[in-house]
Amino acid sequence: MRTTSAWAVITAFEPAHDGISDITYATKMAQLHEQITEFPNGYETVLGERGINLSGGQKQRATLARALARDPLVLVLDDALSAVDTHTETQILDDLQEIMSGRTSFIISHRVSAVMRADKILVLDEGVIVESGTHAELIATNGTYTGLLRRQLLEEGLEAAVAATANA
């Protein structure tokens, strides 16, 4: 991996309004700003082999911040939050809902929690759309989407139970 600064990672593409405040705003929306400010030299911290290595979730959030800094009219997120914990995912999705209001966004995800607020959800099975609708409409059909939601809730419940017993 090439050595670079956190600033360079976030500003790999020119921000829409070209300024520190835009980058700071974008990293805050991607739930990354606080972590960057805790690096030894903040945004000037060296990343890579000779510096700090970003986790998978931090890399995903840096990519998201880069996209948000460009102030997009259309945003496509393809499993962009898969390496982020559910609490952070919720915070990011709350921010995205506000930022992308009146704009178009596509969220492609295996996590139901990432798409449940969407105006329209398309459920694919082996590349074929098998269901579509809002979260409430899809739950009412008790089909594939509902099955995915139940499995994910069960997995989260099991993970929480294991974590609770490990901490006991």
- Largest sheet, spatial ordering of strands: 1-2
Which stretches are poorly predicted, pLDDT < 50 over at least 5 residues?
A: none
Overall geometry: globular
Number of beta strands: 6
**Biggest sheet: strands, sense, closure?**
2 strands, antiparallel
Structural Rg: 18 Å
Helix content: 40-55%
Portion of residues in beta strands equals 5-15%
Number of helices: 8
Q: Strand pairing plus helix content: what structural class?
A: alpha+beta
Cα distance spanning the termini: 40 Å
Average the pLDDT over all residues and give the rounded result.
Answer: 84
Highlighted features:
two-stranded antiparallel sheet; 6 strands; two-stranded parallel ribbon; alpha+beta; 168 residues; 8 helices
Explain the overall architecture:
The structure is a single chain. The chain is α+β, with helices and mostly antiparallel strands and 168 residues long. It has a domain of 50 residues. The strands form three sheets. Strands 1-2 form a two-stranded antiparallel sheet. Strands 3-4 form a two-stranded parallel sheet. A hairpin with a 2-residue loop joins strand 5 and strand 6. The longest helix is centred in the last third of the chain and has 24 residues. It is globular and about 50 Å long. It starts with a strand and ends with a helix.
Walk me through the topology:
Blueprint: E1 4-5, H1 6-10, H2 20-29, H3 33-38, E2 46-47, H4 56-69, E3 74-78, H5 86-99, E4 104-108, H6 112-115, E5 121-125, E6 128-133, H7 135-141, H8 144-167
Parallel strand pairs: 3-4
Antiparallel strand pairs: 1-2, 5-6
Helix pairs in contact: 2-4
